[in-house]
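WARN  no MSA supplied for this record, continuing single-sequence
INFO  ligand: 4'-deoxy-4'-aminopyridoxal-5'-phosphate
INFO  echoing inputs
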Amino acid sequence: ALYPIHKFFILNGELKTNDEFKPAENEGGVYEVIRIVDGKPLFLEEHLARFSRSAEIAGREIRYSGTDVSNYLQDLIRENKVYNGNVLVSCKVNLKAFFIAHSYPTKEQYRSGVECGLLHAERENPNAKVFQTTVRGRANQMIAEKGYYEVLLVDHNGNITEGSRSNAFFIKGSQLITPPSEKVLLGVTRQKVIHCARDLGIDVKEEEISLTRLPGFNAVFITGTSPNILPVSKIGITDFDVQNTLLRKLMKQFDLCIEQYVRN
Ligand code: PMP
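INFO  complex generated
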């Protein structure tokens, strides 16, 4: 949910409150959600690159440079005196950024995994991060009604593409599999996880994940700016091993990756 919890100000210096931000009015606008860790925007370069790419795909022009956004975030962190949390950066006409309420998973959810539902839905431009209230709305409704942590989107061919706000990975033996790049949002976390896996010598493949394949996987996890890497315990009627060695190894490696980024 995009409920701003701290003030924001627009780049020309005029201070406004975040009450003036209405997701519906920003439909079609490009955005990023960036995690702030110890005052540092995590994986900022990757987020800025995707911000530009989303604008390009959506046929919009962002009049602000990466340095503008970066300076803006530094001001925002300092002004709000908030050093850990999630920031929403959005651009439809003007650049806006503010801290939003986040829901990081609990320790117990990391330990025992979360249950995910399935939703037949396709995002319009999979590679672009654009405000789209329809798929998000349906996903949020299903999540609220059934108590799922996330719903995985299923396309018209019966293939799982990604979560409504996350990417999905599947483990079979020593193989790590994720749906094809052109069908999903190129999650910054997804990209980092693929790097971590390669660092660990784990084989990563992009493949279509038809629903019929689900019982054949040992473990499943989702990735995103808020969950990082989160084990999935169940999808529909299929259970997965949340203690899977490869999964747990990747989670450790990813924590190291964050630590390194924040320290440097
Ligand atoms: N897919 C979708 C549809 C999303 O909205 C998100 C959240 N931005 C992700 C994947 C995960 O991306 P990231 O790792 O950059 O947060």
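The CA atoms of residues 161 and 179 lie 6 Å apart.
INFO  checksum written, moving to next record
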